[in-house]
Amino acid sequence: MNKKSIRPQRAGMDEVKNAKGHRNILIPRMGVDFPIEEKIAQASDIHDRWGALICEDKTIMHLLNDYRQAVNNSWETMRHVGIVRECTACAVEDGGSCCGKGIEDKFDVVLLLINLLMGRRLPKVRFFSDGCWFLGEKGCTIIARHVICVNYLCKRLYRNIALDQIQKVQWAMAQETDLSFLLEESIKGWLWALTDRHSPERIF
Fold first, then answer.
1. pTM for the complete prediction?
2. Of 116, 145, 147, 199, which is the most exposed, with the fewest CB atoms less than 10 Å away?
3. What is the pLDDT of residues 145-195, one digit of tens each?
4. What residues form DSSP beta bridges with 13?
5. How far is CA 94 from the centre of its chain?
6. Which residue spans within 139-201 are E strands per DSSP?
């Protein structure tokens, strides 16, 4: 039978037949257009079922370690050039925040799963009614952020931070987002392989 690629647009679980014809293999869907609570539940379910096995994959673990270092380097560079200071002043003194409600809708299940694999708990409720789901009292509560969150630099930053310092941050951000992409694709590949082992059809 020819394999047919099916890529649903919503998060959820599809039950497919295993090699013996029993319908007991649950396979994740990966879309972004589902409520964040359900995407978090989906990521948590994948982590509970397959997290330990995923972490046995040497390629994924290597990418996870490199990605963690890249994230740490991004934050250290932002602190060094003064971006963290500027963002804090903006939030405290001017009441501004780039982390508004709805940003969480950009996240897919795999990116949420990466946070769980890195030991970060995902919040079950929104802390600020008008803020991103992942915005807490001390800022972002997760490690693996969406590329929009990583790359965004506002006019205030360009006005108050020297261009050569901005470029240092952009270089660090590029390393982070490149590794994030590679890690996500590697995890999706692992899950696709799981699907191929148990189902005649891919569902994502």
1. 0.81
2. 147
3. 999 999 999 999 999 999 999 999 999 999 999 999 999 999 999 988 876
4. 28
5. 29
6. 139-140
